[in-house]
Amino acid sequence: MLLQPASASALVRGSGASSKQLTRVMQQQHSGKVFSHLALAAKRSFSSTTGAQSELRKPPHLLSLADLSVPQISSILERSAELKSISRASDLAFSSSPAAGKYQGGRILPQSLQGKNVAVIFSKRSTRTRVASETSIASLGGHPLFLSSADIQLGVNESLFDTSKVVSSMCDGIMARVGGHEEVELLAKHSRVPVINALSARYHPTQILADLLTMLEDPVIGGTSSASLDTLRGIKVAWIGDSNNILADMLVAFPRLGIHLSVATPQGDQYKKDEIVWQDMQDGLKEETSYEKGKVEWGNDPLAAANNADIVVTDTWVSMGDESQKTQRLKDFSGFQITESLLQKAGAKKSARFMHCLPRKPDEVDDEVFYGPRSIVFEEAENRKWTIMALFDRMIGEWKY
Fold first, then answer.
1. What are phi and psi of 355, to 5 degrees?
2. Is the CATH code 3.40.50.1370 the one for domain 65-203+391-397?
3. Active site residue ranges
Protein backbone atom coordinates (compact mmCIF):
# COMPACT_ATOMS: atom_id res chain seq x y z
CA MET A 1 0.00 0.00 0.00
CA LEU A 2 1.40 3.42 -0.99
CA LEU A 3 1.65 6.12 1.64
CA GLN A 4 -0.33 9.31 1.20
CA PRO A 5 1.86 12.20 0.00
CA ALA A 6 1.13 14.35 3.02
CA SER A 7 2.43 11.74 5.46
CA ALA A 8 5.21 10.23 3.38
CA SER A 9 7.89 12.85 3.97
CA ALA A 10 7.24 12.97 7.69
CA LEU A 11 7.51 9.22 8.11
CA VAL A 12 10.55 8.88 5.88
CA ARG A 13 12.25 11.74 7.73
CA GLY A 14 11.73 9.78 10.95
CA SER A 15 13.20 6.67 9.35
CA GLY A 16 16.65 8.21 8.99
CA ALA A 17 16.51 8.52 5.19
CA SER A 18 19.02 10.90 3.56
CA SER A 19 18.21 14.45 2.47
CA LYS A 20 18.44 13.36 -1.16
CA GLN A 21 15.85 10.66 -0.52
CA LEU A 22 13.56 13.19 1.16
CA THR A 23 13.90 15.54 -1.78
CA ARG A 24 12.98 12.76 -4.18
CA VAL A 25 9.91 11.90 -2.13
CA MET A 26 8.73 15.51 -1.96
CA GLN A 27 9.24 15.90 -5.71
CA GLN A 28 6.87 12.99 -6.27
CA GLN A 29 4.16 14.07 -3.85
CA HIS A 30 2.05 15.57 -6.64
CA SER A 31 1.64 12.11 -8.18
CA GLY A 32 1.13 10.29 -4.88
CA LYS A 33 3.95 7.85 -5.61
CA VAL A 34 6.66 6.83 -3.18
CA PHE A 35 9.53 4.49 -3.90
CA SER A 36 8.88 1.08 -2.36
CA HIS A 37 12.18 0.98 -0.47
CA LEU A 38 11.39 4.31 1.20
CA ALA A 39 7.92 3.11 2.06
CA LEU A 40 9.53 0.13 3.75
CA ALA A 41 11.87 2.46 5.66
CA ALA A 42 8.90 4.50 6.81
CA LYS A 43 7.06 1.37 7.89
CA ARG A 44 10.08 0.28 9.91
CA SER A 45 10.27 3.70 11.57
CA PHE A 46 6.57 3.68 12.38
CA SER A 47 6.74 0.19 13.87
CA SER A 48 9.69 1.06 16.07
CA THR A 49 8.37 4.41 17.27
CA THR A 50 5.06 2.92 18.33
CA GLY A 51 6.93 0.40 20.45
CA ALA A 52 4.76 -2.40 19.12
CA GLN A 53 7.32 -5.19 19.22
CA SER A 54 4.66 -7.67 18.17
CA GLU A 55 4.39 -5.84 14.82
CA LEU A 56 8.04 -6.58 14.01
CA ARG A 57 9.13 -9.79 12.37
CA LYS A 58 11.03 -12.06 14.72
CA PRO A 59 14.69 -12.00 13.63
CA PRO A 60 16.54 -15.21 12.75
CA HIS A 61 19.36 -16.20 15.11
CA LEU A 62 22.18 -18.73 14.80
CA LEU A 63 23.32 -19.95 18.20
CA SER A 64 24.31 -23.45 17.06
CA LEU A 65 23.93 -25.53 13.92
CA ALA A 66 20.99 -27.18 15.66
CA ASP A 67 19.13 -23.99 14.68
CA LEU A 68 19.49 -24.82 10.97
CA SER A 69 17.78 -27.58 9.02
CA VAL A 70 19.79 -29.72 6.61
CA PRO A 71 18.49 -27.73 3.59
CA GLN A 72 19.44 -24.48 5.35
CA ILE A 73 22.98 -25.72 6.06
CA SER A 74 23.24 -26.76 2.42
CA SER A 75 22.00 -23.36 1.26
CA ILE A 76 24.54 -21.49 3.39
CA LEU A 77 27.37 -23.65 2.05
CA GLU A 78 26.25 -23.13 -1.54
CA ARG A 79 26.16 -19.38 -0.95
CA SER A 80 29.62 -19.53 0.67
CA ALA A 81 31.08 -21.28 -2.37
CA GLU A 82 29.38 -18.78 -4.68
CA LEU A 83 30.70 -15.74 -2.81
CA LYS A 84 34.18 -17.23 -2.76
CA SER A 85 34.03 -17.86 -6.49
CA ILE A 86 32.81 -14.33 -7.23
CA SER A 87 35.56 -12.80 -5.10
CA ARG A 88 38.28 -14.90 -6.70
CA ALA A 89 37.01 -14.05 -10.20
CA SER A 90 36.95 -10.35 -9.32
CA ASP A 91 40.55 -10.55 -8.12
CA LEU A 92 41.59 -12.10 -11.43
CA ALA A 93 39.77 -9.45 -13.42
CA PHE A 94 41.92 -6.70 -11.94
CA SER A 95 45.20 -8.60 -11.95
CA SER A 96 47.93 -8.99 -14.56
CA SER A 97 47.68 -12.77 -14.34
CA PRO A 98 47.17 -14.65 -17.63
CA ALA A 99 44.16 -16.24 -15.96
CA ALA A 100 42.51 -12.83 -15.80
CA GLY A 101 41.27 -13.27 -19.34
CA LYS A 102 38.99 -16.08 -18.17
CA TYR A 103 36.95 -13.69 -16.08
CA GLN A 104 33.70 -12.95 -17.88
CA GLY A 105 32.81 -9.83 -15.89
CA GLY A 106 29.43 -8.82 -14.55
CA ARG A 107 29.67 -10.76 -11.29
CA ILE A 108 30.48 -8.73 -8.21
CA LEU A 109 29.91 -9.37 -4.54
CA PRO A 110 26.36 -8.40 -3.58
CA GLN A 111 26.18 -5.21 -1.55
CA SER A 112 23.52 -6.72 0.68
CA LEU A 113 24.81 -4.87 3.75
CA GLN A 114 24.86 -1.47 2.05
CA GLY A 115 23.84 1.13 4.62
CA LYS A 116 23.81 -1.45 7.42
CA ASN A 117 25.80 -1.46 10.65
CA VAL A 118 26.80 -4.76 12.22
CA ALA A 119 28.00 -4.90 15.83
CA VAL A 120 30.91 -7.30 16.30
CA ILE A 121 30.91 -7.90 20.07
CA PHE A 122 33.92 -9.96 21.19
CA SER A 123 34.53 -10.54 24.88
CA LYS A 124 37.25 -13.08 23.94
CA ARG A 125 40.39 -12.70 21.85
CA SER A 126 40.16 -13.66 18.20
CA THR A 127 42.18 -13.62 14.99
CA ARG A 128 40.37 -15.60 12.30
CA THR A 129 36.80 -14.85 13.39
CA ARG A 130 37.41 -11.14 13.83
CA VAL A 131 39.25 -10.71 10.52
CA ALA A 132 36.66 -12.82 8.70
CA SER A 133 33.77 -10.89 10.24
CA GLU A 134 35.04 -7.36 9.68
CA THR A 135 36.29 -7.96 6.13
CA SER A 136 33.07 -9.76 5.18
CA ILE A 137 30.87 -6.94 6.43
CA ALA A 138 32.95 -4.39 4.53
CA SER A 139 32.99 -6.51 1.36
CA LEU A 140 29.19 -6.65 1.41
CA GLY A 141 29.00 -2.86 1.72
CA GLY A 142 28.31 -2.67 5.44
CA HIS A 143 30.02 -1.03 8.39
CA PRO A 144 31.50 -3.25 11.13
CA LEU A 145 31.43 -1.83 14.66
CA PHE A 146 33.94 -3.76 16.77
CA LEU A 147 33.31 -3.80 20.52
CA SER A 148 35.87 -5.62 22.67
CA SER A 149 35.82 -6.39 26.37
CA ALA A 150 37.60 -3.05 26.86
CA ASP A 151 34.67 -1.26 25.23
CA ILE A 152 31.74 -3.25 26.56
CA GLN A 153 31.48 -5.75 29.40
CA LEU A 154 28.56 -8.06 28.87
CA GLY A 155 26.54 -8.45 32.02
CA VAL A 156 29.06 -6.53 34.17
CA ASN A 157 28.53 -2.77 33.96
CA GLU A 158 25.24 -3.27 32.18
CA SER A 159 22.82 -6.18 32.08
CA LEU A 160 22.68 -8.39 29.02
CA PHE A 161 19.04 -7.37 28.64
CA ASP A 162 19.96 -3.69 28.45
CA THR A 163 22.93 -4.30 26.15
CA SER A 164 20.82 -6.32 23.73
CA LYS A 165 18.06 -3.72 23.68
CA VAL A 166 20.42 -0.80 23.10
CA VAL A 167 22.78 -2.36 20.54
CA SER A 168 19.98 -3.94 18.51
CA SER A 169 18.16 -0.61 18.36
CA MET A 170 21.18 1.02 16.69
CA CYS A 171 22.57 -1.81 14.54
CA ASP A 172 21.20 -4.15 11.90
CA GLY A 173 22.84 -7.30 13.20
CA ILE A 174 25.04 -8.66 15.99
CA MET A 175 28.01 -11.05 15.78
CA ALA A 176 28.88 -12.10 19.34
CA ARG A 177 31.87 -14.01 20.71
CA VAL A 178 31.12 -14.57 24.38
CA GLY A 179 31.89 -16.67 27.43
CA GLY A 180 28.98 -18.72 28.70
CA HIS A 181 26.41 -19.84 26.14
CA GLU A 182 23.68 -18.24 28.23
CA GLU A 183 25.16 -14.85 27.31
CA VAL A 184 24.50 -15.23 23.59
CA GLU A 185 21.11 -16.79 24.36
CA LEU A 186 20.09 -13.68 26.31
CA LEU A 187 21.43 -11.38 23.60
CA ALA A 188 19.31 -13.20 21.04
CA LYS A 189 16.24 -13.38 23.25
CA HIS A 190 16.00 -9.62 23.64
CA SER A 191 17.44 -8.49 20.30
CA ARG A 192 15.30 -7.01 17.56
CA VAL A 193 17.94 -7.89 14.94
CA PRO A 194 19.67 -11.17 13.99
CA VAL A 195 22.32 -12.50 16.38
CA ILE A 196 25.06 -14.88 15.21
CA ASN A 197 27.12 -16.85 17.71
CA ALA A 198 30.79 -16.36 16.83
CA LEU A 199 31.77 -18.64 19.73
CA SER A 200 30.41 -19.53 23.14
CA ALA A 201 31.53 -22.02 25.76
CA ARG A 202 29.03 -24.57 24.39
CA TYR A 203 28.84 -24.02 20.62
CA HIS A 204 30.89 -22.69 17.70
CA PRO A 205 28.67 -22.92 14.59
CA THR A 206 30.68 -20.71 12.25
CA GLN A 207 33.71 -22.97 12.64
CA ILE A 208 31.86 -26.12 11.61
CA LEU A 209 30.36 -24.40 8.57
CA ALA A 210 33.93 -23.56 7.51
CA ASP A 211 34.96 -27.16 8.16
CA LEU A 212 32.13 -28.46 5.98
CA LEU A 213 33.02 -26.12 3.12
CA THR A 214 36.65 -27.23 3.36
CA MET A 215 35.63 -30.89 3.23
CA LEU A 216 33.46 -30.26 0.18
CA GLU A 217 36.26 -28.47 -1.66
CA ASP A 218 38.95 -31.02 -0.91
CA PRO A 219 39.60 -33.13 -4.04
CA VAL A 220 39.88 -36.32 -2.01
CA ILE A 221 37.02 -35.86 0.46
CA GLY A 222 34.40 -33.89 -1.44
CA GLY A 223 35.95 -33.27 -4.80
CA THR A 224 33.25 -30.89 -5.93
CA SER A 225 32.79 -27.18 -6.46
CA SER A 226 29.01 -27.48 -6.25
CA ALA A 227 28.98 -27.57 -2.44
CA SER A 228 26.64 -30.57 -2.54
CA LEU A 229 26.48 -32.28 0.83
CA ASP A 230 25.68 -35.56 -0.93
CA THR A 231 29.41 -36.10 -1.44
CA LEU A 232 30.05 -36.16 2.32
CA ARG A 233 27.52 -38.83 3.23
CA GLY A 234 29.16 -41.92 4.63
CA ILE A 235 32.58 -40.40 5.35
CA LYS A 236 34.12 -40.85 8.79
CA VAL A 237 35.42 -37.94 10.85
CA ALA A 238 37.58 -38.73 13.88
CA TRP A 239 37.63 -36.18 16.68
CA ILE A 240 40.62 -36.69 18.98
CA GLY A 241 40.67 -34.08 21.71
CA ASP A 242 38.63 -32.16 24.26
CA SER A 243 34.88 -32.31 24.73
CA ASN A 244 34.43 -28.70 23.69
CA ASN A 245 32.32 -26.32 21.60
CA ILE A 246 33.83 -27.48 18.29
CA LEU A 247 32.85 -31.07 19.00
CA ALA A 248 29.42 -29.90 20.16
CA ASP A 249 28.53 -28.36 16.80
CA MET A 250 29.90 -31.42 15.02
CA LEU A 251 27.53 -33.54 17.09
CA VAL A 252 24.43 -31.51 16.25
CA ALA A 253 25.32 -31.30 12.54
CA PHE A 254 27.33 -34.25 11.24
CA PRO A 255 24.95 -37.15 12.03
CA ARG A 256 22.06 -35.27 10.37
CA LEU A 257 24.22 -34.84 7.26
CA GLY A 258 25.03 -38.54 7.06
CA ILE A 259 28.59 -38.09 8.36
CA HIS A 260 29.90 -40.66 10.84
CA LEU A 261 31.67 -39.20 13.88
CA SER A 262 34.09 -41.14 16.06
CA VAL A 263 35.15 -39.36 19.26
CA ALA A 264 38.11 -39.96 21.57
CA THR A 265 38.44 -37.80 24.68
CA PRO A 266 40.54 -38.33 27.81
CA GLN A 267 38.98 -40.05 30.79
CA GLY A 268 37.50 -37.82 33.47
CA ASP A 269 34.22 -36.09 34.20
CA GLN A 270 35.29 -32.82 32.53
CA TYR A 271 35.72 -34.65 29.22
CA LYS A 272 32.37 -36.42 29.17
CA LYS A 273 29.67 -35.41 26.73
CA ASP A 274 27.54 -32.36 27.47
CA GLU A 275 24.04 -33.70 28.11
CA ILE A 276 22.40 -30.57 26.67
CA VAL A 277 24.38 -30.97 23.46
CA TRP A 278 23.60 -34.67 23.37
CA GLN A 279 19.88 -33.93 23.63
CA ASP A 280 20.15 -31.31 20.89
CA MET A 281 21.78 -33.97 18.73
CA GLN A 282 19.00 -36.47 19.45
CA ASP A 283 16.35 -33.87 18.66
CA GLY A 284 18.05 -33.05 15.38
CA LEU A 285 18.12 -36.67 14.31
CA LYS A 286 14.31 -36.58 14.22
CA GLU A 287 14.54 -34.44 11.08
CA GLU A 288 13.35 -36.53 8.15
CA THR A 289 15.91 -37.25 5.43
CA SER A 290 16.01 -39.57 2.44
CA TYR A 291 19.38 -41.01 3.44
CA GLU A 292 20.87 -42.89 6.37
CA LYS A 293 21.97 -40.73 9.30
CA GLY A 294 25.55 -40.76 10.48
CA LYS A 295 26.59 -42.80 13.51
CA VAL A 296 28.36 -41.48 16.61
CA GLU A 297 30.89 -43.48 18.61
CA TRP A 298 32.47 -42.16 21.81
CA GLY A 299 35.43 -43.56 23.69
CA ASN A 300 38.85 -42.76 25.15
CA ASP A 301 41.16 -44.42 22.60
CA PRO A 302 42.65 -42.22 19.85
CA LEU A 303 43.69 -45.28 17.85
CA ALA A 304 40.16 -46.66 17.77
CA ALA A 305 38.72 -43.30 16.80
CA ALA A 306 41.14 -42.77 13.91
CA ASN A 307 40.68 -46.25 12.44
CA ASN A 308 39.56 -45.98 8.79
CA ALA A 309 39.01 -42.23 9.22
CA ASP A 310 38.70 -39.93 6.21
CA ILE A 311 39.37 -36.84 8.31
CA VAL A 312 41.11 -36.45 11.67
CA VAL A 313 40.39 -33.33 13.70
CA THR A 314 41.76 -31.93 16.94
CA ASP A 315 41.80 -28.59 18.73
CA THR A 316 43.53 -26.83 21.59
CA TRP A 317 43.89 -28.83 24.78
CA VAL A 318 43.91 -25.72 26.95
CA SER A 319 41.11 -23.31 26.07
CA MET A 320 40.99 -19.63 27.03
CA GLY A 321 40.19 -19.48 30.72
CA ASP A 322 41.65 -22.92 31.45
CA GLU A 323 45.30 -21.83 31.65
CA SER A 324 45.49 -22.69 35.36
CA GLN A 325 44.73 -26.33 34.44
CA LYS A 326 47.46 -26.59 31.81
CA THR A 327 49.77 -28.95 33.71
CA GLN A 328 46.99 -31.41 34.53
CA ARG A 329 45.49 -31.20 31.05
CA LEU A 330 48.80 -32.02 29.39
CA LYS A 331 48.91 -35.16 31.53
CA ASP A 332 45.30 -36.01 30.67
CA PHE A 333 46.02 -35.74 26.94
CA SER A 334 49.11 -37.93 27.01
CA GLY A 335 48.98 -40.12 23.88
CA PHE A 336 46.55 -37.81 22.08
CA GLN A 337 49.09 -35.92 19.95
CA ILE A 338 48.32 -36.38 16.25
CA THR A 339 51.38 -37.79 14.50
CA GLU A 340 51.94 -39.73 11.30
CA SER A 341 52.90 -42.70 13.45
CA LEU A 342 49.58 -42.56 15.34
CA LEU A 343 47.57 -42.31 12.11
CA GLN A 344 49.36 -45.26 10.54
CA LYS A 345 49.11 -47.35 13.69
CA ALA A 346 45.41 -46.55 13.99
CA GLY A 347 44.74 -47.55 10.40
CA ALA A 348 43.51 -44.18 9.21
CA LYS A 349 43.07 -44.00 5.46
CA LYS A 350 46.25 -43.20 3.54
CA SER A 351 44.41 -40.24 2.05
CA ALA A 352 43.07 -39.05 5.43
CA ARG A 353 43.07 -35.28 5.87
CA PHE A 354 43.92 -33.33 9.02
CA MET A 355 42.01 -30.31 10.32
CA HIS A 356 42.50 -27.91 13.24
CA CYS A 357 40.61 -24.66 13.90
CA LEU A 358 43.76 -22.86 15.16
CA PRO A 359 45.68 -21.57 16.98
CA ARG A 360 47.72 -24.75 17.20
CA LYS A 361 50.29 -25.94 19.73
CA PRO A 362 52.88 -28.64 18.86
CA ASP A 363 51.62 -30.72 21.81
CA GLU A 364 48.36 -31.25 19.89
CA VAL A 365 49.81 -32.14 16.48
CA ASP A 366 53.40 -32.40 15.31
CA ASP A 367 54.90 -30.43 12.42
CA GLU A 368 54.99 -33.44 10.09
CA VAL A 369 51.20 -33.69 10.06
CA PHE A 370 50.36 -30.01 10.58
CA TYR A 371 52.51 -28.79 7.67
CA GLY A 372 52.38 -32.01 5.67
CA PRO A 373 50.25 -33.17 2.71
CA ARG A 374 47.42 -34.36 4.95
CA SER A 375 46.83 -30.89 6.36
CA ILE A 376 44.07 -28.62 5.07
CA VAL A 377 44.16 -26.30 8.08
CA PHE A 378 44.91 -23.11 6.17
CA GLU A 379 42.17 -23.74 3.62
CA GLU A 380 39.93 -24.34 6.62
CA ALA A 381 41.01 -21.03 8.17
CA GLU A 382 40.34 -19.06 4.98
CA ASN A 383 36.88 -20.59 4.64
CA ARG A 384 35.90 -18.92 7.88
CA LYS A 385 35.58 -15.76 5.80
CA TRP A 386 33.34 -17.19 3.10
CA THR A 387 30.96 -19.00 5.42
CA ILE A 388 30.68 -16.00 7.73
CA MET A 389 30.11 -13.77 4.70
CA ALA A 390 27.30 -16.07 3.57
CA LEU A 391 25.69 -15.87 7.00
CA PHE A 392 25.82 -12.08 6.97
CA ASP A 393 24.41 -12.00 3.45
CA ARG A 394 21.52 -14.36 4.20
CA MET A 395 20.71 -13.58 7.82
CA ILE A 396 21.31 -9.83 7.95
CA GLY A 397 21.47 -8.63 4.35
CA GLU A 398 18.31 -10.38 3.17
CA TRP A 399 16.34 -10.07 6.40
CA LYS A 400 13.82 -7.28 6.86
CA TYR A 401 11.81 -6.20 9.88
1. -130, 150
2. yes
3. 357
